[in-house]
């Protein structure tokens, strides 16, 4: 069933700090409107519609989020209804307005095309999205409550924590699942793929019954032993949960795997590109739409590395398309300085920010050149909006605009170990440039 473009505008969403399609959250640079994309999928026609809306109703700046969605920034108050109407007309809304917040299911951007995948999870993802959208009880879930479905693709972000994650086993005959973590953690149990919709429905209903005032799975499991949650879940299911699950393969997937990849489909490739500091403008999005139509299948996939995957490019055209992406201003080299930096909107957009993280990141990129670690995250405050995972190195802004430098360390909460306090951005650059690319201290 297509999205309902007759949903009345304005619809009044429930209160939340998170932006949504109708919940346009005010920021220093105007309103923020978040568009949730199923599996990160964006057709070229939709990309053009977003670019047009960004131009006429907002500042033209688009943010690609770490959950494969996009945000329009600088939305003008008097243009909000026009903006939402345009996005709905392009099929970019939910089927029911109340379901906008709960469409949180992360897939690999290469789902259905990745040669390493154990299972093409797109049909199952469609079933789960239908379940979330069509079950009114689930519309009570927090706008942050998030699911992940991993088909075993090589191009997957497995470091983001999810309230519920599901991962295909070798051969695709079983789906393992876990709670309140990322798919790099030990799974709790597994089921057959056909049992997944009933598993998820039962699990979410159980969560809502037990959660009380809690909104996230980790909060509930801080009070309720996970074994007890599993026992209660099992008691409601007509099939057995297989609790003996081997450890799933581990991979460090936090850094963006930019580059060109051979697809499962013979003769085709896909190019995974980064958007510098997670942003593109309307002209760049129009150019991407044109490139996808001319060289590929007209489809774009947004990635959890705040970039774009351009699939279905014939092998003979991949070099030309790589050049075109560079001309548009996207990054295909993971060692490029801006490809190794994450930054939140900072003081130009956010009242909570202690520093202009975007501008500082550009200055840092120029200072680092090809030196320094694989990933550094500049965060304007401890909320860490730009990274759902803990980056290998974090520069956390302090009142006055200086930064504390942290290194991620296993067993240490938060951003990790404090390496150096109160650095200005040039001092931070000197510190980071002295580190080897592996990210280990020199
Ligand atoms: S991390 Fe803090 S400063 Fe940066 S955008 Fe989020 S709330 Fe604002």
Summarize the structure.
With 442 residues, this protein is an alpha+beta fold. The chain has helices at residues 44-57, 80-89, 122-134, 196-211, 217-221, 226-236, 282-295, 318-328, 357-368, 425-433, and strands at 25-27, 30-35, 41-43, 61-64, 70-75, 105-106, 147-150, 162-168, 175-181, 189-191, 259-262, 268-274, 279-281, 299-303, 307-314, 341-343, 376-379, 393-397, 403-407, 417-423. It folds into four domains: 25-96, Sulfite Reductase Hemoprotein,Domain 2 (Sulfite Reductase Hemoprotein, domain 2, Alpha-Beta Complex), CATH 3.90.480; 118-151 and 158-236, no CATH class; 259-336, 2-Layer Sandwich (Alpha-Beta Plaits); 339-433, Sulfite Reductase Hemoprotein, domain 1 (2-Layer Sandwich).
Describe the structure.
By secondary structure, this protein is of the alpha+beta class. It has 4 domains: about 25-95, Sulfite Reductase Hemoprotein,Domain 2 (Sulfite Reductase Hemoprotein, domain 2), CATH 3.90.480.10; about 120-150 and about 160-235, no CATH class; about 260-335, 2-Layer Sandwich (Alpha-Beta Plaits), CATH 3.30.70.3340; about 340-435, Sulfite Reductase Hemoprotein, domain 1. It contains 10 helices and 20 strands. It has helices at about 45-55, 80-90, 120-135, 195-210, 215-220, 225-235, 280-295, 320-330, 355-370, 425-435; strands at about 25, 30-35, 40-45, 60-65, 70-75, 105, 145-150, 160-170, 175-180, 190, 260, 270-275, 280, 300-305, 305-315, 340-345, 375-380, 395, 405, 415-425. The strands form 4 sheets. Strands 1-2-5-4-13 form a 5-stranded antiparallel β-sheet. A hairpin with a 7-residue loop joins β9 (about 175-180) and β10 (about 190). α1 runs antiparallel to α2 and α1 packs antiparallel against α7 (about 280-295). The radius of gyration is 21 Å and the shape is globular. About 50% of the residues are buried. The mean pLDDT is about 95. The site of iron/sulfur cluster has 11 residues, from loops.
């Amino acid at each position: 069933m297509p999205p309902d473009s007759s949903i009345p505008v304005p619809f009044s969403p429930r209160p939340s700090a998170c932006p949504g399609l109708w919940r346009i959250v005010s920021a220093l640079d105007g309103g923020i409107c978040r568009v949730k994309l199923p599996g990160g999928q964006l057709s070229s026609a939709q990309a053009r519609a977003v670019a047009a809306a960004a131009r006429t109703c907002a500042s033209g700046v688009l943010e690609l989020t770490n959950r494969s969605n996009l945000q329009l920034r600088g939305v003008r108050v008097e243009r909000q209804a026009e903006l939402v109407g345009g996005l709905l007309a392009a099929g970019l809304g939910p089927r029911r307005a109340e379901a906008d917040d709960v469409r949180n299911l992360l897939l690999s951007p290469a789902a259905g095309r990745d040669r390493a995948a154990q299972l093409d999870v797109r049909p199952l993802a469609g079933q789960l999205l239908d379940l979330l959208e069509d079950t009114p009880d689930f519309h009570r879930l927090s706008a942050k409550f998030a699911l992940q479905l991993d088909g075993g693709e090589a191009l997957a972000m497995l470091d983001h924590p999810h309230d519920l994650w599901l991962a295909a086993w070798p051969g695709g005959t079983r789906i393992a699942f876990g709670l309140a973590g990322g798919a790099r953690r030990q799974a709790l149990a597994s089921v057959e793929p056909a049992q997944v919709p009933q598993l998820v429905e039962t699990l979410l209903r159980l969560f809502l019954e037990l959660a009380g005032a809690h909104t996230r799975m980790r909060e509930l499991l801080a009070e309720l032993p996970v074994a007890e949650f599993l026992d209660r879940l099992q008691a409601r299911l007509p099939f057995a949960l297989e609790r003996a699950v081997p450890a799933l393969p581990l991979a460090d997937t936090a850094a963006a795997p930019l580059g060109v990849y051979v697809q499962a489909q013979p003769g085709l490739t896909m190019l995974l590109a980064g958007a510098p500091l997670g942003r593109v403008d309307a002209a760049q999005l129009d150019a991407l739409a044109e490139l996808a139509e001319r060289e590929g299948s007209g489809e774009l996939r947004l990635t959890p590395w705040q970039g774009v995957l351009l699939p279905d490019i014939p092998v003979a055209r991949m070099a030309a398309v790589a050049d075109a992406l560079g001309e548009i201003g996207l990054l295909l080299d993971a060692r490029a300085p801006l490809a190794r930096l994450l930054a939140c909107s900072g003081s130009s957009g956010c009242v909570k920010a202690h520093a202009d993280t975007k501008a500082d990141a550009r200055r840092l990129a120029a200072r680092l050149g090809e030196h320094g670690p694989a990933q550094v995250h500049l965060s304007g405050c401890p909320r860490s909006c730009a990274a759902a995972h803990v980056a290998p190195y974090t520069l956390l802004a302090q009142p006055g605009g200086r930064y504390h430098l942290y290194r991620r360390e296993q067993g240490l909460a938060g951003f990790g170990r404090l390496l150096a306090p109160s650095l200005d951005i040039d001092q931070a650059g000197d510190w980071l440039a002295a580190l080897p690319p592996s990210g280990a201290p020199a």
